[in-house]
Amino acid sequence: QNQAIVYKNNKDVLDLINKFKFENTTEFGCIQSFIHKKKEYSCSYLNVADRINKLSKFFNFGKIQTFFEIGGGFGANIHFLITNFPNIKKILYLDIVPNIFVGTIYLKHHYGNKVKDYINLKKLDKISFSNNDDLEILCIPPWLLEKVYTEIDHFHNAASFVEMPKKVIENYVNYIEKFKTKEISLISYDGYDPKTTFNPEELNGFFRNNLNISWEDKLIKDFKRKNIYLTSHH
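Structure (tokenized):
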């Protein structure tokens, strides 16, 4: 719980609590959490909020309708975005097995039948969003991506690209381009281990070196470590 105490007494954390909505962030046995004004907050959701807050310098999340995320952890980023930006209605969520199963169950807990899972989608010849304004979250493993037909306002990846073989990233980038994606945000960490990952600045090369690069402090400032933000121009 030491980490939670650090969060609870941090001014930047309190600023985020005042700026954003946090609903049901500590379900399913959240280990790192703290109480502020009788409400419980998940530390990992505060980290998500901090990333979105930093990305808001580059993007207007209030204008996005279609969102594509690869490698979304257990679904917290998407849950946080929908809570704060109800304009985001159509979400394509891709992850490897078994992560996609965990994320699907987590999002179904919050959004029920708005979530279309592998069972719903695997038998379709073409996967696309319904032509309406209803919330829709399509959860797919990588091999269903070739069946997806859509256009995307915003693509996001946090920390998992640098852990993939470069051929896999190239394949994903082909789809990001095929979907006529308007905005791109990538986040990764410094202090990488060259045995298992690569320099996150190299990610720019997959996008024709068209992305801005900025290094930002983490929410709980760690003087040794920063996160890299790669963002498309406007």
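The beta strands are 33-36, 39-42, 66-70, 90-94, 115-116, 136-140, 154-158, 183-189, 211-222, 225-232. The chain has a mean pLDDT of 95.
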